[in-house]
Design a protein that fits this description.
Two copies of one chain form a homodimer.
Chain A lengths: L4 H9 L35 E5 L5 E3 L1 H5 L4 E8 L22 E10 H8 L7 E12 L2 E10 H6 L3 E6 L2 E2 L9 E3 L12 E7 L6 H4 L3 E2 L8 E2 L6 E4 L4 E2 L6 E4 L1 E10 L5 E7 L7 E2 L1 E2 L9 E9 L2 E11 L22 E8 L2
Parallel strand pairs in A: 1-10, 15-22
Antiparallel strand pairs in A: 1-2, 3-4, 4-7, 5-6, 5-10, 7-8, 7-9, 11-12, 13-16, 14-15, 16-20, 17-18, 17-21, 19-20, 21-22
């Protein structure tokens, strides 16, 4: 594998969760993964959220006015749809994530449904479009970053308009002053730096909806849209790392392995560990998640014997979705939830 | 240029400052560059800072006891010594920074000199060693991350033991509960997650001091230690980016360019801009810095004409140090402060 200059430019700006910080129930600000398509925009002074389109009454709301409404706080695990992309063969050119594009935040704000009810959705509405202030060129088209949800998802779900992260004002890089957070969905849905919300009478056909973020077998395939997060377990790599290779070293003896597991499709039902590269598996202990769409902590007592080992973990959710042992390739390099593999060197005590 | 899997593992964990966020005087938490050699460590409950070695009286201080001392706050621009490494040819394998490994924080804490005076430095002391909780293998040697300062630098300088960043408790990734901050120096000096401070009667000869962080012409060269930050100017790339290539697009007409410039050797004396790849240069407007070792904002009024341009900026400090047009190679790939080059496409209005 080799990464190009273009990809390095993305990797140097955006960042994943250092995997040892899976130890925190809620990811501290600055450690949560970040994928910024274009630039962090300078949101204008006097910002107001506009809600328009197919509504009875257009809304224009300041942050103070939003804060005056009941606050809802949800602990949500968010993952980039491109997580695992850099492990695919043939290589897919884009943000080169290995496995670390995840984080869990306590997001606070107003339910999307609350504002839509205030505005009054008119007959004939089918989707709700969320448009950010971030602008750029993608696929040759200059655009604001924008994505839609079906009206049903926007009204019935847990979708939040968040102005808080971990009890503090939303930081610029996570979408201040206001962002969408759609629990259980891959991160592309959770539009940052919201400019406006528009109720539509037809499905949105913008680039980020109809071209990007689809599972396509080949360039001719129209594909299926990405929606909810596939199951994944990640472990805190045990022992200490080599600086350059990240190879792990630990002493022989009892070793408590720990990590997190999540799925946007159903609650996590089981996590299994393998210390022999996936040949044999044993059940890990699984804690209940702190919230419906937050990750679950898991632990596994391993007796580390001297030598080289490849540690693997995998999650299965309550709907029977399980992580594959090998990556499943697609054009955009999305949703590769193949099991994590952590080579470790155990030294005699 | 191609980046290896090992380097990508580093680039996916660590991150630079997205250059558009040079717009902030003080970098918001989560945007400041991060270089974590090993792992973010789990600092033990009941942590206390130990001050020992060649002192009259050993100290053991809780965070509360440190907070009870007078707080000093300094706005400091910090840069990784490896910034610019990925632009070097031949390629140097390590954390692959392009130009973004910088940030400015308002650090708050206790002066190093204050604690050394309390402990009472004994005759024969020559250096002060700062040891972190972060452990790993580097150059084949398992070690805690540690670096020394000369006694003179530790006593006379602005070196801080910081427990605050931007008015908030220090975040885990920046060294909580306590880190060293040495204004004007490259970041490797500012040891994070401090475990202990030891006054030494001889120069420290650990790996991070005598092997790493030296400017060496070749493997046989003992080299010169890296200390203070060489001058650099960076601009906010104008216009909007292409997602994948980061190529910039902007409309023709007047365009205010802005950026920041800094040097740890002397105050910045001048910033110059070139819109033709460095063939001709014009002076930018330079603001005074908000603090002695903080970056200065600069602006430049550019009349963007349609076509392709390569924008460059360069800084010169009061001691006459100026950025080179071409990188200067060394074994570790350190301190490459060659001018930034930003290709832009200007479209007719």
């Amino acid at each position: 594998m080799a990464i190009s200059l273009d990809e390095l430019q993305l990797a140097a700006r955006n960042h994943g969760l250092p995997l040892e910080t899976l130890r925190y129930d809620v990811t501290p600000v600055g450690l949560h993964y970040l994928l910024i398509h274009f630039d962090v925009p300078a949101v204008p002074d006097g910002w107001r959220l506009r809600v328009g389109g197919l509504v009875e009454e257009e809304l224009s709301l300041s942050l103070e006015e939003l804060r005056a409404r009941p606050i809802v706080r949800r602990i949500v695990t968010m993952e980039c749809a491109g997580n695992g992309r850099a492990r695919l063969d043939p290589h897919v050119f884009s943000q080169p994530w290995l496995a670390e594009a995840v984080g869990t935040g306590e997001w606070g704000g107003v339910r999307v449904a609350t504002l839509l009810e205030e505005a009054g959705v008119r007959d004939g509405a089918v989707e709700v479009l969320f448009t950010g202030f971030d602008r750029g060129v993608d696929g040759g088209i200059e655009q604001a970053y924008e994505r839609s949800l079906t009206l049903e998802e926007a009204l019935a779900g847990d979708a939040l308009l968040a102005y808080e992260l971990n009890g503090e004002p939303l930081p610029p890089q996570h979408g201040a002053p206001l962002r969408l957070v759609v629990p259980g969905w891959y991160g592309m849905t959770s539009v940052k730096w919201l400019d406006r919300i528009t109720v539509l009478d037809r499905p949105f056909e913008g680039y980020q909806q109809t071209h990007a973020y689809r599972i396509r077998r080949d360039e001719e395939d129209e594909g299926e849209p990405l929606t909810r997060i596939r199951p994944r377990a990640l472990m805190v790599p045990p022992g200490v790392p080599d600086f350059l290779t990240r190879q792990r070293f630990l002493p022989a003896g009892p070793c408590r392995l720990e990590g997190r597991a999540w799925s946007g499709l159903a609650p996590v039902a089981a996590v299994e560990m393998s210390a022999d590269g996936g040949a044999t598996w044993s059940a890990a202990e699984l804690d209940p998640p702190p919230d419906r769409w937050a990750w679950s902590r898991w632990t596994f007592e391993w007796n580390a014997e001297p030598g080289e080992h490849e540690l693997c973990c995998r999650a299965r959710d309550g709907a029977g979705n399980e992580q594959p042992l090998e990556p499943e390739w697609n054009v955009g390099g999305y949703a590769n939830n193949a099991v994590q593999r952590v080579p470790v060197t155990v030294r005699a005590g």
